[in-house]
Amino acid sequence: MSVNYEAARAAVDARLGAKAAAHCHRVGDTASGLAILYDVDPETARIAGILHDWDRERTPEQLLGEAQDAGLTLSDAESARPHLLHARTGAAALREEFPGIDDAVAHAVARHTVGAFDMTPLDMVVYLADMIEPAREYAGVQELRDAVGAVSLGELFALGYQQSLAHIVTARKRIHPDTVAVWNRYVAGGPR
Ligand SMILES: [Fe+2]
Ligand SMILES: [Fe+2]
Asked: What spacing in Å lies between the alpha carbon of 152 and ligand 1's midpoint?
């Protein structure tokens, strides 16, 4: 059985601390709004949004252990920054928690940090909802919010991704190799 929103919300509230859970609620609601604008199923987006940070509060050790158990191959960037793994391990953990979970939902959860070369519209909606949910405050967030509905979903994702990468570079953090592929495809003029 696929997970419905109420079950997803109850599970998130039981698993995460109040602050992280509230962020997840906002991401679910924001994802639903983006989905309506960009012709994605809003209920699926809301469910993927509320579940996206399922593994957000796992320790680096737990994330590395979960990744090993799930047979995930780690990049150097993930070994150095295990926090990056919470998206992929979260998707694997959700498949265990909710065996009937919609593939598209698990997919979007897995891709909400680094993104991927072949982002689906749902993947983009969840990625962006995480960036612009109402409590987010950073230079550039207003530019993204203003672009919602004014540009295509692909262009909105490109704008968001550009900001994420700029942040990683400014903070002198390691760049996940997939990030380069995503950059070249969606931001630096590849096919949309
Ligand atoms: Fe996250
Ligand atoms: Fe998040």
From this structure: 24
Q: Report the half-sphere exposure of 190 (CA within 13 A, side-chain side).
A: 11
Least confident of 60-69, 155-164, 183-192: 183-192
**69 Rama sector, left if φ>0, alpha if ψ -120 to 50, beta otherwise:** alpha
Q: How many other CB atoms are found less than 10 A from the CB of residue 107?
A: 17
Between CA 45 and CA 33 the distance in angstroms is: 9
CA distance 161 to 182: 8
- Residue 1: pLDDT above 70? no
Considering every ligand atom shown, identify the ligand nearest to the alpha carbon of residue 23 and give its number.
2
Going from the Cα of 120 to the center of ligand 2, the distance in angstroms, rounded, reads 18
Angle at CA 140, nearest 5°, toward 44 and 169? 95
CA of 54 to the centre of ligand 1 (A): 8
Condensed to tens digits (0 to 9), the pLDDT of residues 108-121 reads 999 999 999 999 99
Asked whether the predicted pLDDT for residue 191 surpasses 60, the reply is: no
146 C-alpha to ligand 1 centroid (Å): 23
The DSSP line for 23-87 is: HHHHHHHHHHHHHHHTTS-HHHHHHHHHHTTTTTT--HHHHHHHHHHTTPPPPHHHHH-GGGGHH
Sign of torsion over alpha carbons 115, 92, 38, 21: negative
What is the residue whose two structure tokens read 């590395």? 64
